[in-house]
Write the structure tokens for this entry.
Amino acid sequence: MNDSLRMERVRRFIATLNQACELGLAVESAGKGELVLRLPYSNFIVGNPDTGVIHGGAITTLMDTASGSVIMCALNDFELCPTLDLRVDYMRPAEPHRPVFARAETYKITRNIIFTRCEAYQDTGETIANCVGTFMRIGQDATPKAYRDLITGGESDQS
Amino acid sequence: MLESIPYARFIGLECDRFGDDLIFRLPRKEQNLGNPILPAIHGGVIGGFMELSAVLYLMMAQETLRMPRIVDFSLDYLRAGLDRETFAECQLTRQGNRVANVMITAWQKSRSQPIATARAHFLLED
């Protein structure tokens, strides 16, 4: 599977997540076991009206989505893997009026569990938050074929 | 206070008071969904709901209008959050001089069947 196919799959997947669409999450780049998503700044996700800093919840959604979607960049076949847990460490508040990026990777894949790492940062180079997550592999058949085909475009890619 | 926080309006967070106790509510909202098959609320929204609940709870407990800064947030997903109203309650596990530890439980159908539990540390600035 090549990187443009990976990006395409992640794009199609994110398009089915209402909340990700509401936030305007976009795919920046994808590689084998790697993914970068972008969260644009908007006034409606501000958590502290005095400072204009966006709420941690939007960062959590960004990182959860990046960590869950990077699995698609690591496995050839599409498997929907529910989140078991997420641990987010906040390094600093995100600077207002700038997008936040999330770079996620799968660092260990086992038969049952996928372990992910994710860093949220801004174009100033500052780390906003770090996140580790675990995802459960419930198997391909737990997801309806029609939905799998929607994400993969109907093609299984073993290359 | 809820009115003044854009993110609270964005996800639709509400709060009810029972004596000194606070129950936070997240009414059903289509825009909060993630997994379209079940369908289920996006895990990040459940996290954001619980995190914001903890912030509001701490502000009420401390009787302050200043927002505490979150240090870390650890979230266990126990069940799928289905497309229905979600509730959360918080408990101040320990408050020190500078840091507070808050436990958050979220449920839908029954409080005895939580959909997620979380633990957060906050920096209390003076």
About this structure: The domain at 3-152 of chain A is CATH 3.10.129.10 (Thiol Ester Dehydrase; Chain A). Chain A has four helices and eight strands. Chain A has a mean pLDDT of 94.
